[in-house]
Amino acid sequence: MTFLASPVRQTRIQLLCWTLYGLLLLLAWDYSGLDLILAQWFGTAQGFPLENHWLWRTVLHDDVRLWPWAVELALLAAIVLPFGPLKQLARARRVQLALTTLLALLVVSTTKLHSHTSCPWDLQQFGGTASYVSHWAWGVRDGGHGGCFPAGHASAGFAFLGGFFAFRHIQPRTAWRCFAGVMLAGFTLGLAQQVRGAHYMSHTLWTAWLCWTVAAVVDLGVSWLISRQPSVLLAPAFSELAPSK
Asked: Rounded CA gap, 231 and 218, in Å?
């Protein structure tokens, strides 16, 4: 007798596989030593010439710092008063999206807070005082300021990967559009910091993986709750009960 996995179980297996594939690629990247090679593209013995460039610092760093928190506030408000494409989502999925974004930002910022890894611009070969130490060498200090792993700025884009998971249940096309936009935003912000010497490419890649993993775990949890009480968790929000004019 052949036992076929249910569509839900198949989806869970696919999510697990993609998450593990991403982890393996990250480990391969760390082993390759490409971080320093790419850093040398933009850095010199005197530092990183583009560190204070108007595009990389002002436009793609300073001017976007508050954006993720502003969008997060909008997502929290949309739980009760949905707008735009969010009207297509059940209330539970809107809660999922807002929660995922908040958790992803907190996970990245908390990890960064306790990291001993310093930024490329802190390295001796770029005019700093630190020596290169892998971020896997836990507890080993490199002589710099630390607090540079993973890429906090890139999380302003990647934290919204929850949109892909929230929409994939009812609007796959919207979900993939959200995925493409979020990845583009995350890697653009990550590149801006790499050009400035603020991060290695691995920092950006790890941020993407952490945000993806948080979003996948929350999605599985919410989906399980919905399967237990669909009539309650898939009920429309109060504002959606009002008669249309």
From this structure: 20
Domain of residue 107: give its range.
Answer: 11-229
DSSP state for residue 136 in the 8-state scheme: T
Angle between helices 91-113 and 201-228 (to 10 degrees): 150
Does residue 236 lie within any of the structural domains? Answer: no
pTM of the predicted structure, to 2 decimals: 0.90
Measure the CA–CA gap between 120 and 109, rounded to whole angstroms: 19
CA 64 to chain CA centroid, nearest Å: 15
The predicted-structure confidence for 95-150, as pLDDT tens digits, reads as follows 999 999 999 999 999 999 988 899 999 999 999 999 988 877 777 888 998 999 99
Dihedral sign (CA 10, 12, 17, 22) = positive
Structurally, the chain folds into a number of domains equal to 1
Q: Write out the DSSP string of 28-58.
A: HHHHHTHHHHHHHHH-BTTB-TTTT-IIIII
